[in-house]
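Hi U.,

Before I forget, here's the chain from the pilot set. I'm dumping it here mostly so it's searchable later in email.
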Amino acid sequence: MPPTPLELTTLGHRIRHQRLAHGFTLDELGAKVGVAGSQLSLIENGKREPKLSLLQAIAHATGAQVADLLSTEPPNRRAALEIELERAQSSSVFRQLGIAPVKVTKGMADETIESILGLHRELQRREREAIATPEEARRANTELRLKMRELDNYLPEIEKLAEKQLKSAGHVSGALTHRTVSIMAEKLGFELIYANDLPHSTRSVTDLEHGRIYLPPASIPGGHGLRSMALQAMAHRLLGHERPTDYADFLQQRLEINYYAACCLMPETASVAFLQQAKKDRNLAVEDFRDAFGVTHEAAGMRLTNLATTHLGIRLHFLRVDGSGAITRVYENDDLPLPMDVTGAVDGQAACRKFSARAAFSEQNRTTEHYQYTDTPAGTYWCSTQTGTTSAGEFSITVGVPFDDARWFRGRETQKRATSTCPDESCCRRAPADVAERWSGKAWPSARVHMQMFSPLPRGAFPGVDDNEVYDFLDRHA
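Structure:
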């Protein structure tokens, strides 16, 4: 493998350091090793790679070892400054400014180089904090969704890590308790503290210096949420996460901590045993899976996507849809036809009105799962949908499978059936011709404008988090 520009630059500096230490000019050393001084200058400036025989000759002439010349460490502080500056001025962040790089001369003071480097470091810092555009965010989210689709939404290393941590904390079976979560935190050197003044932009805050994980008050409804938040905070440490370098990295980390929390709340060994027995009984149901581990319907549905293909041989899809019909969370590896924008993004797109995910909103009985078969251009699918309500409005959670796999699920006997021809717009997005003709030019709806249409994505390595609030919070509690 050829050396990188940085390696050549460092090598050049080490050769120059040895030459100057012995008082040789370029021509004098060149004469000793059999090359022109101009050729040696190109090598010292990192513009040309020397042959091994030439390196050996330089080492012999200067009394150095070849290994010393090939070291990746700059020979002195001045060389380190020059190398860092060269690296900074070759970065894409600097080049896109269209500014000519500064040429370092012998007479340039170290303080001058440090000052220029300070500007470059600030430029890099601001670039890391720069917001992702909505298009970049959608592309990053789409790439992650497709990556997880290839993996059948299954991450075995995180599964093993979770089981190891649970075993260490003494968890054997049943729903994971708050006490066990606290023990898991203690084994990592953390104390769980419930604070009622968390920064509004955070779900939890981890104080790495004092070993504390701050969570919302324990009295708030939804114990699953608090357990999950604590586990997610611990996952960052267990998975060795560093500060996110870009939006894609942030999304990957968020997926991994959510996955770890799910593995702890619904451990693989116990979950697979439960699901395999239910499949054997032809009685698979998200609601039973949910109740067995004391989690939310959404968490159980998503956990099923982690395990069903790998352990049960079942391909499936998962949808969370809000009251307006927009898809807010999605996974599929069963080829369900999903609406997509030109980037391939699904999140935010409107689900077909004929899908169970939307039809369930019109059901009178919202306390039980809604079952439905749907004929699509890709085949027939069976779906189970549960609806719910939050302060943000209605939502539905759907888990579905191709027709042939419906035989393993409770609710397969349903007579409810619909036909979807989406993405053909005549299916449910385009008004019938007679209706459109009757009302064309005679209606003027006032659109509800969502403020997020005008809001950029949050800034920062941790998008949306207000650093001032977080640091003030930590100061108050330190």
